[in-house]
Hints:
The protein has one domain. The protein contains 15 helices and no strands. It has helices at residues 2-10, 21-37, 57-117, 122-126, 131-134, 136-144, 155-169, 176-193, 209-223, 242-264, 274-281, 290-306, 320-327, 329-349, 353-382. The model is unreliable at 10-16 and 390-405 (pLDDT under 50).
Amino acid sequence: MRSLIRGAQEASPKSGARRDLRVDFFRGIALFCIFIDHVPGNWLGLLTLRNIALCDATEAFVLLAGYAAGLAYGATLDRRGFTFTAASLLRRVGTLYVAHIFLLVVFTAQVGFSAAALDTTAYLDELHLDVFAEQPYQALLQALLLRFQPAFLDILPLYIVLLLLLIPASPLLRHPAVLLGLSGAGYLVVRLLDLNLPGWTGGGWFFNPLAWQLLFFAGCALGYVPRAAGRRGTPPAVPFHPLLAAAAGLVLVVGAAAMLIAYADADSFAGLPENVALVLADVDKTGLHPFRLVSILALAYLLGHLVPFDAGWVRSRVAAPFVLMGQHGLPVFCTGIFLSFLGRLALEQAEGWLMQLAVNLAGLAVLVGVGAIAAWYRLREQAPVQRPAADALPDVAPSSTTPVQ
């Protein structure tokens, strides 16, 4: 497994920069947490980020996706220019779109078959797939247009739009202050005017790309590495300062306290001042509430300084499965969505600790296996073709159709 990771590093684009395995590790953790959170009744979900902070794995995934995009497409921009970078981004968008449609078809068939086998409509109603029974052709068309997104299938459309926004914004990677200024201004306008992309079934997108772009572009700004003397170093980190670290820690402690109090007593906010209670009760995910934004940035700041770029444990056998998952996020994510519904079905049959253990261990094993297969295939695809030497070819006996030298 570690050899696959080393091979992936050697096979990465030659930008002169070493791959940041911290990003792969934490992205792998985020992908596993997304799988856990999508399995109702999963006890392990009590320990994921969404229950101990005012943010969750989705924020982590988007921030790390922006970081990786800034690192990769920023290098492409400097080496090959804007046109090639835009083409590369469009190619990636096409890959994500095909993956989303394939996942939509498989997930819909999986849920629909289960609902028919168990003679229930609860799954279809809960996952917003009931419209396929009522208006199948219209639902399919709207799904192709990304205006209809069933539950659990709204992260890839968000990612698609974010990469499309990066195309015109990519030249601003060289000017991070301008990029973040424009992105922040757009975020404020979207929040104040309640703007969103339209959805087919009413309302807007569950993950509003017009708001989430700020978190994505923050990651891009952190990941971009300017060329210096023809080479690239490590991405510049936000400088460490004790007061900034204390403020970040305070943000996380307050968020954790709020989540624990709400979990212990859902009516505990009733005794707070009305304005305070309304703010805490309305930390929306759709528009990326400022509390959620600040929380994930605070967590990233602390982890970025607690885990240095060359941390040895990130290259250890324990971290290797998550690094491998993070390096191949698309197939791992799609597989996790499929597995999460299977995990739900299993826990509905028996929710004891043995089944809980089986669901989570089996899910992790399959996701790591998908990452390993993807890594192996990528290495085989990028390996140089071994052509036989001329003197190693077998002699061919002359014939009436073989010219004699």
